[in-house]
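Troubleshooting entry. Yesterday's outputs looked truncated, so today I'm pasting the complete records for two proteins to confirm everything comes through intact. If either block looks cut off, that's the bug. Protein one:
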Amino acid sequence: MHIGQMPAGTHDVFVALGLAVAGLVFAAEVRRRGRGDERLWYLVAGVLVGGALFGRLGTWLQHLDPRQNATLAEQWAYGNRSILSGLAGAYLGVLVAKRLCGYRARSGDLFAPAIAAGMAVGRIGCLLTERPGTPTGAGWGVTVDGVPRHPSFAYEIAFHLLALAVLILARDRITQPDALFTGYLTGYAVFRFAVEFVRGNEVVAAGLTRPQLFLLACAPLLAWRLVILARRHRAARTQGVPV
């Protein structure tokens, strides 16, 4: 794929488009909610830096023996990229940015629609350039080397588009801070764990892939976030605050 006279990889083009779309959706949501604090853009910088670092380096430690892993320089230049570790890095990047700039308000619901929109666009690049999933007899399979396979990235695009629609419809009805963001993260974690079974990634332990093991490792943190959200919900109801 080419843009003008400059060659560009199809995957990278759609990743860039996804980031651009996410930025536009975020800006629109900030304006719609009347959140004019300029420090929000420090949070965006945290998302980009944290997401880039963890997305590129998050798959570095694949073997218990350090000698079997690539060097950090090799991983950065040639290693696999990971959406899941990128999301984790983006989340940590926001936390660091908040601490540095002194921003204390909750911001997850500002990011949720932007992430869903950006992921839907970015995954088009994966759909067009990466190997699809496991063999399937379904009529919608993508044939590669004569074998129909699950279009796993198409499933993910559909999930994020559906999530975006739900987030837009629910954003004025659910007023508890970060409820939309937490719901989106939970939904994506469950979906991604399930779709891994037809994704075709390497099974490494207990019949599970590395992304599934990563999700299991992160499950306690997500459960903790759900507990905190439930407590806030109960406290708000006790005080008679609409939620």
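Protein two, checking that the full record survives here as well:
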Amino acid sequence: MDGVAPQRASALIHCIPAILGPDELAAIQSKLQNAAFADGASTAGWSAREVKRNLQVTPGMPEYEQVARIVREAFMRSGELQTALLPAMATPVLFNRYAQGMEYGPHVDTPVMGSMSNAVRSDIAITVFLSDPRSYDGGELTVFMNGVGSQFKLEAGAAIAYPAHTLHHVTPVTRGVRDAAVLWVQSQIRDPAQREILWDMENAKHLTFKREGKSATFDLISKSRANLVRMWAEV
């Protein structure tokens, strides 16, 4: 379904509409039109290289830092992503392209990315869609959780965050070009089940406050969530 994501497979998958503003999206799209791309298999693990057929922006291109900064700032100002993911660190942003016939077969992301001095544990993967979903066919991001695959093909400027330990793939593009920005996040809360509990409690806080204001019930939920973060956080 172009531009539409199915119901969330779990509270661990977050779809954020319009994480990029129109001007930000246009600036990135313009820069990518003339960017130099290289074989994306160069950044995959030895087994993932067998199924990774895409292109990535060549590191060090003059415009890279400008467009990467736009994506990083959008991620940092997203209240939902900051609250749900509780990020501690993130990898550099990658920009990938799937032209006709390209895909990324089923794989699991590398668990630790970077070198000893800047290693990031990849708890969560984020994809920011940069192409109009009506301009290409195929290219759905498919995420498997509990044996069930959910497909996502979002509007340009929207983002999805999902657990990086899941098996996932990008289906073959059969028409057009699919551009996206990707990055990985290390959370302060390593366990995805614990992150889900904290996200549910945050939503319960907001629902309770909307219904009854800063009540005794709201205070108890707030206290419990804060103390669970204190108990579980790795900082």
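Both blocks look complete. Sanity check on protein two: Confidence is low (pLDDT under 50) at residues 1-9.
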